[in-house]
From TrEMBL:
Active site as annotated: K101 (proton donor)
Reaction(s) catalysed by this chain's protein: orotidine 5'-phosphate + H(+) = UMP + CO2
PANTHER family hit by this protein: OROTIDINE 5'-PHOSPHATE DECARBOXYLASE
Protein family per UniProt: Belongs to the OMP decarboxylase family. Type 2 subfamily.
NCBIfam families given in the database record: pyrF_sub2 (TIGR02127)
Keyword terms of this UniProt record: Decarboxylase, Lyase, Pyrimidine biosynthesis
Enzyme Commission number, as recorded: 4.1.1.23
Pathway(s) per entry: Pyrimidine metabolism; UMP biosynthesis via de novo pathway; UMP from orotate: step 2/2
Protein name, UniProt field: Orotidine 5'-phosphate decarboxylase
Residue stretches making up the Orotidine 5'-phosphate decarboxylase domain: 22-276
Amino acid sequence: MSAGSGAPFGARLQAAMRERGALCAGIDPHRALVESWGLTYDVAGLERFALTCVEAFAGRVAAVKPQSAFFEVFGSRGIAVLERVLTELREAGTLTILDAKRGDIGSTMTAYAHAYLADDAVAPPDALTLSPYLGYESLRPAIDLATRTGRGLFVLALTSNPEGAQVQHARRDGEAVAASIVRGAAGDNAPARARGELGSVGLVVGATVGTAVADLGLDLVAAATPVLAPGFGTQGGTVASLGTTFGAARGQVLAASSREVLSAGPEPSRLAAQALRIAESLPV
Ligand SMILES: O=c1ccn([C@@H]2O[C@H](COP(=O)(O)O)[C@@H](O)[C@H]2O)c(=O)[nH]1
């Protein structure tokens, strides 16, 4: 066990949410936002944007979620900025969730796992988002490595976009695909559940999915899973909709918001105030 305090990710996230509220602030430096901050859309602008977010969020929110795509756009120099963001947040004691939605098979999945979850990875985040649509068990190399290194995962179950239902609501032998993902996470989180803790295999369930959690029979409480809920804010998720969607699992939910928070930039103090205002509105 090696990440941070030595406790597994699920326990560290629970502690951070209790201390700082249930907000995960996103770092999504897309062109329109970068330019609205008066920055040029190039590597220098990317770096200024991202480090301003680090200054504003470090030590203030439970977790920060950089979106890998917006760094990858700039090639190796963009990735270097992402690595700096992850390293500085870790040094400041703030949990990071890298949104890269990785998923593959066999030795390729093993390589992804090593790249993001190993102790000797270049800049490992505390947790990584994964896509299970090559089959939940195809993620096993990442699940096993994250368990060994104390890191976490957020596996896509019900995504915030309307198109996700085409795959995630589909049924096989009467069970919705999303429910089979929850079942997989529940199995991996069973030891943590027995200790009365959240596990380190989290799920992504959008803040915009309405009553789908209940309709599809997803038991998030029994799965002892942290839930990352993107779609809060600009995509339409609200404090009220989180209550409707998650019910008894509400205390497991970390609401993720990018544009709603980032629209308060570029002044770091205003950005921080916006994040704190949203975090305070979210019951833990
Ligand atoms: O189901 C999902 C999974 C991931 N995302 C990501 O979250 C942010 C949302 O940004 P907002 O500006 O708060 O809408 C973005 O990085 C998405 O790729 C998601 O929206 N839904």
